[in-house]
Amino acid sequence: MFTKHLLDKALITLEVGDSTPLFILLAKDGTIHRKGNGNVAENLPLMRGISQQGHFEALMMTIDDSIFEHSGVLKFPDRVGQECQLTIIFQGAGETDFSFRVIYGLESEGPPAELTAILINAVKISEPWYREQLQQDTEPEKKWWQFWK
């Protein structure tokens, strides 16, 4: 089954309790949105933009086509600790949609390794772009005549 070529968007969210410490949207057209790094203690902002660095394509290269045969919801019955939810959604033209959702406890068994790998790769792939956006956001705005700053 060859599915990846049909897809043009990937959305990955990690929710812990009532917070969303990680949100990543990557699209084939270069659209990129990211919030956080997965750490609940850090409340990092949402950054949005367009990138021509191929983030979506890079993520898709790390994904085996066989994963799309197993989409759906996995809810662990014996959750220990704060409730967590990992959601990964791939979409394409028309009604092409492959969704994965894992509901687990913070101190119990986590998501399957294949889904965890997608999450980790999405973070690694988008991290340089996100850090650059955060840095630009914190730099004071220069006046047009202050070209030396």
Task: Describe the overall structure.
It is a single chain. This protein is an alpha+beta fold. The protein is 22% helix and 35% strand. Strands 4-3-2-1-6-7-5 form a seven-stranded mixed sheet, with helices on one face. The protein is flat. The longest helix is centred in the last third of the chain and has 26 residues, at 113-138.
Rg result: 17 Å
Kindly report the spatial arrangement of strands forming the biggest sheet.
Answer: 4-3-2-1-6-7-5
Largest sheet, in brief, is: 7 strands, mixed
* Computed structural class: alpha+beta
By oligomeric state, this entry counts as: single chain
* Average pLDDT: 91
Morphology: flat
Helix run count: 2
Distance between the termini: 54 Å
Strand residues, percent: 25-35%
Helix content: 10-25%
Write the layout of secondary structure elements.
Elements: E1 7-16, E2 19-27, E3 31-35, E4 46-50, H1 55-61, E5 72-75, E6 83-92, E7 97-105, H2 113-138
Parallel strand pairs: 5-7
Antiparallel strand pairs: 1-2, 1-6, 2-3, 3-4, 6-7
